[in-house]
Amino acid sequence: MFDRDTRILLVGHKDFRNIWLGETSAHFGGQLTSFLLPLIAVTYLHADGTGVGLVSAVQFVPVVALSLIAGVMVDRYPPRRTLVTSTLVQGAALAALGAFQATGGLSFGQLVVVAAVIGVATVFYEVAYQSTLPRILPLDSIAAANGLHQATYSVSTLAGPAAAGFLVGRLGLSPTLTVAAACCAGAAISGLLLRGVKAPEQPRESALKSIGSGLRYTWSLRPIRDLCVQAGLSNLHEKAFLTVFLVFAVRGLGMSGTTVGVITGIGSVGALIGSLTANRLTRRWAVGGMLALGAVLAALGLLLVPVVSQAGVYVAVLASVAMMLNGFGVALFNVFAVSLRQAIPPEHRIGSVTASYRLVALGTLPLGAVVGGALADALSAGTALWAVGLSYLVVSFWLTFSPLRRARTLEEAQQLGRTARTDRSPVV
């Protein structure tokens, strides 16, 4: 299942094995929680659609509000501290929610506060984790590590919501919250085992100045800037498409919500395949080429959905295949995009680049949802599906004009970054 490089990482690198096991626990608990919190709003608190949307949104808002601050902290303090603290905060919030429910005092306001706290802690954990990998691994192992990371995410995306539904149905809410809190505890234990990884030395400057210099560095370095733009545009179109697809599938094709969920979830199978094969593909093809190909395949997969919807038969099956192609392309892009943004910056810039990238890449998601909904209302859902799909295909070629396209290896991309660097802050 795993290639040779991945097996070597799992068996021979203690620090990576510990942090990956912690990330696996954190991802599974996170996917379980992200499904569980809106479910609580619907089933236990009988919230309306706006309330359910609020519970989902407050978990995401911290990505926009706090990513840059998280980047500064990760660059200034040992990652062990951030990883452990963030997971303990998540576990405590979930335990408090379970206590409120067990005593019959759970309110909608408490649910929103807990969702916001979990969202904040998740931002710090993700930035810390992604910034730690290049500090504990050699450059030639980063792609394999990120492939494993993406595979973990894909499996968690499939298993987390299903586990949440099963546990709530069989055990009830409080025991399910206990399971989610236990996942956080497992991630915290893993973080405690990460010893000897120190924060990089860097110039002394205020947090505000550090945020500003990190943003300037990220935007002035074209390879990183191109990655940010492609990720932001891709996520905007992905979210817009899925918003329109939900409306189109239910109202235009008469599908049930369960069928739509299965079709969308099958994309994670393609993502799992892409993440497990990405490292092998670089043995024959260039990293930059695989990166650009991933973006295009992701767009083609979604554009195939309105195409197959005209078939009249087996639409659900054909749409699922299209979603698998999309998932494969997204995983391929993510593995190499994360690897490149970890390889190109100097060590003392990894945290700020990770935070800036996530701000741009994930900050377009709510905009995509709004745009998708507006297009579905202004046009028809079917027409909007074509419009978003075609637009996505056009912007997916952005990286074909980037100097990253020429990089065959991570080492070449790193050298490309050094050549293009315009940052004038001291390098230590």
Automatic annotation (TrEMBL):
Organism for this UniProt entry: Streptomyces alanosinicus
PANTHER family for this protein: INTEGRAL MEMBRANE EFFLUX PROTEIN-RELATED, MAJOR FACILITATOR SUPERFAMILY ASSOCIATED DOMAIN-CONTAINING PROTEIN
Alphabetical list of InterPro entries matching this protein: MFS_dom, MFS_trans_sf, TM_effector
UniProt cross-references to SUPFAM superfamilies, sorted A to Z: MFS general substrate transporter
Localization annotation: Cell membrane
A single GO molecular function term of this UniProt record: transmembrane transporter activity
Sorted UniProt keywords: Cell membrane, Membrane, Transmembrane, Transmembrane helix, Transport
Record-given protein name: MFS transporter
Domain Major facilitator superfamily (MFS) profile: 1-408
